[in-house]
């Protein structure tokens, strides 16, 4: 498996590698512990904190990303602008902004909280399980993305109608429709009724 910022271990100050840890949470989103990232996703999965970002351009089009083929989880599928996991103790908002910049070279404008959603989505292709308490964020992409090729294979801005067409033909992440549907009220508020979200 290729090493990417999302799968790599971190080097500590003494030069030893540290596994990436995630926050485990209860059904209310209260932190109850930590787990190593891959272990948290192995069946049956452990409920952990995550985030999903939806960025739109000035025409109200959603920025999608196709996950890089080297990703250990859901490689090569389309998904929302950015998703990931805060480090233990890191605020979801800060993690969302950080990872959006790391993956896409974007600093979102007007990034706002859009609620939370809890789900359990097994990924048949990998055998991994997304047991997540997901913090949702919406905002604007006011500059062109500059994707990190180790994280993102491709990007596309799509209207609601174009998304429906693409979703019918191309593979998407198991969690995509769940997080999109949960974020729709905030998306409509951001983009206005004419955007069709």
List keywords for this structure.
four-stranded mixed β-sheet, Nucleoside Triphosphate Pyrophosphohydrolase, 4 helices, 35% strand, three-stranded antiparallel β-sheet, disordered N terminus, single chain, globular, alpha+beta, 197 residues
Write a structural description.
- There is one protein chain.
- With 197 residues, this protein is of the alpha+beta class.
- The chain has one domain: Nucleoside Triphosphate Pyrophosphohydrolase.
- 22% of the residues lie in helices and 35% in strands.
- The chain has helices at residues 37-41, 92-104, 160-169, 176-191; strands spanning 10-11, 17-18, 21-25, 31-36, 48-56, 62-67, 78-79, 82-84, 109-122, 129-140, 152-158.
- It has a four-stranded mixed sheet with strand order 8-5-10-9, sandwiched between helices. A three-stranded antiparallel sheet has the order 7-6-11. Strands 1-2 form a two-stranded antiparallel ribbon.
- The chain is globular and about 45 Å long.
- Residues 1-13 have low confidence and may be disordered.
- Helix content range: 10-25%
**What is the number of strand segments?**
11
Query: How is the largest sheet built, in terms of strand order?
Result: 8-5-10-9
| CATH class membership | Alpha Beta
CATH superfamily: Nucleoside Triphosphate Pyrophosphohydrolase
Mean pLDDT: 91
By secondary-structure content and strand pairing, the structural class works out as alpha+beta
What percentage of amino acids are in beta strands?
25-35%
Report the span from N to C terminus: 37 Å
Question: What is the CATH architecture assignment?
Answer: Alpha-Beta Complex
| Tally of structural domains | 1
CATH fold label? Nucleoside Triphosphate Pyrophosphohydrolase
Element-level helix/strand string: EEEEHEEEEHEEEHH
- Main sheet: strands, sense, barrel: 4 strands, mixed
Q: Assign an overall shape.
A: globular
Rg of Cα set: 16 Å
Number of helices: 4
The unreliable regions are: 1-13
